[in-house]
């Protein structure tokens, strides 16, 4: 039996932060941000809101699209690096709010690659018969760990959540191949230093701004282009698909130049690439399922279409999945 995606959903905050807003906050310009990243605006959660608020809505939409009930769900997996709190898990909070009374729940940490890791686990649970329906939600409020005085990072990120329901699908459809990888030696290029067991929260850690995301942009960029290319090659080979079979490439939305480089390398025309970065920025793990959900709801993809989803992120990690909807 094969597992596949049987419903999608997403949710983003209403509040918009434009490049013009950043021109008033830091030494930057709309022109710099657009040409270097492709970002025009991003969505930012209100004070007092948390990751689970958006994740729960995304899950509800995915569950509705799948045509099942919350009580049918066996597992909730939440991929996030900005949980509501260290524990309980954000997945447990979501499970309760969904009313998924028969579901287990856990968080998974693989930064921007988290969605791909989580759907890989979910599909395995379904295919070995350990679960009938698994809800995978990737959700991050990166605004909570962004230093809005650091122009080299603050313009890049936005908040959001995307979800899918993974369940059994008819023969010939579903997940065809996965590729997941990690190079922990690159952890220093993208990380949040404090708040864990190495540097617990203290007055000093707050003053030293160690609770904010730190990034070496150029190192991350080089890694991203390399990893996205290699990972896509691998899932293509494993799945038996050819480039011409791809109906939609759904890449992690970190920088339009990274997306364009990946699409060019594979000879995939721009009309077959899902792009949301101009309106949402980099929403971390949620960027792939948000782009997927929008493509589904806009009718850009339909049952039977072949998709490649590919991403990279902190860890450093990367991942790709080939799926026939
Ligand atoms: N506005 C104006 N100037 C800026 C800004 C800004 N917002 N940010 C940086 N600059 C300046 C720099 O200070 C530098 O000035 P200098 O030459 O005087 O030193 C100049 O612009 C060029 O900076 P670079 O870092 O070389 O610019 P680059 O073209 O590499 O673009 C960027 C930077 C957009 C960050 C790019 O490197 C990138 O996208 N990297 C990948 C980021 C990424 O994918 N992150 C993934 C995160 S995934 C996750 O897990 C959250």
From TrEMBL:
Official protein name in the record: Beta-ketoacyl-[acyl-carrier-protein] synthase III
EC number(s) from the headed UniProt entry: 2.3.1.180
Lineage: Bacteria, Bacillati, Bacillota, Bacilli, Bacillales
Ranges where the Beta-ketoacyl-[acyl-carrier-protein] synthase III N-terminal domain occurs: 106-184
Domain Beta-ketoacyl-[acyl-carrier-protein] synthase III C-terminal span(s) in chain numbering: 236-324
Family statement drawn from the similarity comment of this UniProt entry: Belongs to the thiolase-like superfamily. FabH family.
Gene3D superfamilies reported in the protein's UniProt record: 3.40.47.10
PANTHER family: 3-OXOACYL-[ACYL-CARRIER-PROTEIN] SYNTHASE, BETA-KETOACYL-[ACYL-CARRIER-PROTEIN] SYNTHASE III, CHLOROPLASTIC
